[in-house]
Structure formats: structure tokens, C-alpha cells
Amino acid sequence: MKRRNETLNAAAMIHGGTKANKKPALDGMFDTLNKKCKLSDLANYISNVDNLQQRVVSDAYSKTARRFEISEENVIRSIATYYSAGIMGKRKYKAVRLVLSTKTSRRKRGGGTSLCIMHKCAVPKLSPYSKLIGYINQIDIGKIYSVEEEFSNYLADDEVIHGSFRDLREFLPRLAKFYLQIKNKRHEALKWFGKTDGTFLVAFGGDGCPFGKNKSACSFLVSFLNVGKRVASSADNFLTFGANCESESCAVVQNYVKVYANKFQTLKVKSLMLMVYMYRSNLLSYQTI
Predict the structure, then answer these.
(1) Distance (Å, rounded) from C-alpha 61 to C-alpha 57?
(2) Res 260: pLDDT
(3) How far is it, in rounded angstroms, from Cα 106 to Cα 132?
(4) Residues 255, 261, 265, CA angle at the centre, nearest 5°?
(5) How many secondary structure helices (H) and strands (E) does the chain include?
(6) If we measure between CA atoms, which residue out of 255, 279, 121 comes closest to residue 207?
(7) With a threshold of 0.90, does the pTM exceed it?
(8) Cβ distance 190 to 227 under 8 Å?
(9) Please, which residues bridge with residue 206 across strands?
(10) pLDDT of the chain along its 289 residues, tens only?
């Protein structure tokens, strides 16, 4: 105690301060400690004092964690979680959000408490589902067209088809631009197959599969061959057409393919070349457009 008082009095003589106002002396001592002491030593000092950990450090962390939880960075983190290994869906996302930030509590029957990495330092939560979906809905993904509206002339009187599709003349340039923007951030470089950089080879094909309550469904997906081994993977294969058609040979699907086979021929984008490969033997013969 005596040494502490002598240290404080000496600091007051240098930096100013009185018994009633010790702040100038304390500011001077802290500034000296901050500038002259190694960070590792400061960390040791703080970690050995429970009050500093529980009150100072935890308060600073809590404020930072709260700011992070409402930040755009956390929304992006939440989107990455939501779309990892396929779309989670509302129920699973809420469950994952809960399990990542809470633990079972002996005090609360059937409940849980915040998961803390140290005293009062809770792990930041993912964004709430409502905020996540609101952010996703604001993202510009281009225009989506209705199958029943665009191809109503090919529907039978008693035929009911629901679905959506993209205009590939709009979607493919957007997709190519996206790949060019992130090419330096991926571990595996884009492959150009000896062609000029920016020449994309596009695989486009359809397939039928059971879908929900419908007996069958038909979907078309597009993928760039330039992504290498990731071609047609779950992360690099994009849905462009989906409808509850009875079969792949129905009039709607066949006319969709014919329409876009012709549209590909007119696809011209400045500084971007798209070579499109169509496949599915029962729809179109293999050809390069």
C-alpha cells in the first residue's frame, strides 16, 4: 500500500493531479505502461487479475460482439452457413443458430444458456432468420420468368404446370462476370482450354426427378466447364428452369429448349465469348452453338 501511494504521488508530481482528482496521474501511468510494456506482459497482468477479466475485458468484448451481431459481416457469415452443403431451410437454420450459441443448463429445465468463451463473453449469434431472409430477398439475382405465362400456348386444356426459368441471355453474362470478379480469390484457377481468357464454355442440360408432391419434375441447369473438376458440382451448377412437367418430352420443355437453342445463337457480349454445349439425346443432339 505504501509503495502504491508513493508511486501515485510521484506520478502526480510529473503529470499533475491532486488527492481529489487523481485522473492526470493515472492517465500518465497507464500511458507509460501502454507504451513501454510488451503486449505479452500486459496480457499476463490482465489474465492474472479476475476483476480485469470479468469486468473490463468482458465488457469490451460484449460491446464488440453486439456490434458484430448486427453488422453486414455477420449477415454474410449467416448466409454462408445457410447455403453450406445445400440450402438449410428455416427450421434447420434456426436449430443450427441455437446450437452454435447456447449450451444446456442444469438450472433451466429443458432450456439453455449462452455459450461463453470466458466470463460473460458469449459467442456471437448468427443473424435471426427473418433478418437473413430479408437481406437475401434484397439481393439482385436478375429477372425470373413464369413458365405458365411464357409457354401457355403449349399447354393442353387440362394441363396445369407451375414453374420458373431464367433468360440465359441475361443470366450467363452475369454469371461470367461473377466468376471473373472472384477468380483470384479461389484456390483453383479458371481453365481456358487454350482459348483467350474470358472465353467460357457452358454446359447446359436437363433432367427429370421426383419433386415434392408432384409425380415428376423437370429441371435444367447450367455450369461453366472452366471451373474444372467443380463442373456440375452442387456449388457450381445453377438452376435455370424448374417446372412440374409430367416428362422431359412434354411440349413445354421441348419448346423451352428450342427457344433457347435459337437465342444462344444471338448471344453476344462485349469482351466475353460464350460457347454453349447442349446435351440430352432425347431433347437435342449434341451440338456446339
Answers:
(1) 6
(2) 72
(3) 31
(4) 145
(5) 11, 11
(6) 279
(7) no
(8) yes
(9) 220
(10) 788 888 878 888 888 877 788 888 888 888 888 888 888 887 787 777 777 777 777 788 888 888 999 999 999 999 999 988 778 888 999 998 988 888 766 665 555 677 777 777 788 899 999 999 999 888 888 889 998 888 888 777 777 788 898 888 888 888 888 888 888 888 788 888 887 787 888 887 776 555 545 567 788 888 888 888 888 777 788 888 888 876 667 788 888 887 776 666 555 444 344 444 433 333 333 333 3
Please state the length of the chain.
Answer: 289
C-alpha cell recorded at residue 22:
487523481
Whether the Cβ atoms of residue 57 and residue 205 lie closer than 8 Å to each other:
no
The CA-based diameter of the chain, rounded to the nearest angstrom, is 99
Q: What is the residue whose three cell numbers read 419433386? A: 211
Instruction: Please report which residue ranges of the chain form alpha helices under DSSP H.
Output: 2-15, 23-36, 39-47, 50-51, 58-69, 72-82, 90-101, 129-138, 147-150, 168-182, 251-265
Q: What single letter denotes the amino acid at residue 201?
A: L
Contacts of 281 (CB under 8 A, 6+ apart): none
Alpha-carbon torsion 71, 75, 76, 78, what sign? positive
Amino acid at 44: N
Tell me 124's DSSP state.
Answer: P
The neighbouring-strand residues paired with 201 are: 275
Q: How many CA atoms lie within 13 A of 51 on its CB side?
A: 0
- Rounded to whole angstroms, the Cα distance separating 289 from 145 reads 24
